[in-house]
Amino acid sequence: MASKSISQRNAFSITWIIENFDHCWPREKAIHSPTFVVALMESTKWHLIIYPWNNGYVSFYISRLEDCEGPANIEVNFQLEFLASDGSTLKFENRENCAFSKDKSFGMDEFATTNEVFGINKHDFCLMET
To answer: What are the TM regions of this chain, as residue ranges (predicted)?
Structure first.
């Protein structure tokens, strides 16, 4: 089967807003987004995962859930982004040709430093109440 060009591939975007990101959970815990189903990708189920305090870094992943439809493996190109309150991109990571089996994650262990997110650039990463 010939591969599709980027212009022929299906695309989608998920926005996940986390309230009180800077102080509402234990440092060693992962935070999981709500599950979403991508009908364009054979009804596969996914979620995003953030580890806010991972050895001095914020880790960020996309994960295919085990209990989903679709093929045993599906190849995905994706981009993970942290956005500012105005919608501009603060940090991003692109990945191409990642083969997701069921219960497989891809992302970045060192997506951003905790000092960057919760310290020196907190006003950019964490929306502050006025």
So the answer is: none
8 Å CB contact between 118 and 128: no
65 pLDDT tier (thresholds 50, 70, 90): very high
What amino acid is encoded at 29 in this protein? K
Q: Over the chain, what is the mean pLDDT? A: 80
β-bridge partners, 44: 38
Q: Give me the DSSP letters along 52-102.
A: EEETTEEEEEEEE-SS--S-SEEEEEEEEEEE-TTS-EEEEEEEEEEEEET
- How far apart CA 51 and CA 35 sit, in angstroms, is 17
Q: How many helices (H) and strands (E) does the chain have?
A: 2, 7
Residue 66 to residue 63: CA distance in whole angstroms:
9
Is residue 42 within 8 Å of residue 72, measured between CB atoms? no
Collapsed DSSP state (helix, strand, coil) of residue 40: helix
**Rounded CA gap, 91 and 104, in Å?**
23
pTM score above 0.90: no
CA distances from 11 to 21, 29, 73 (A): 27, 30, 18
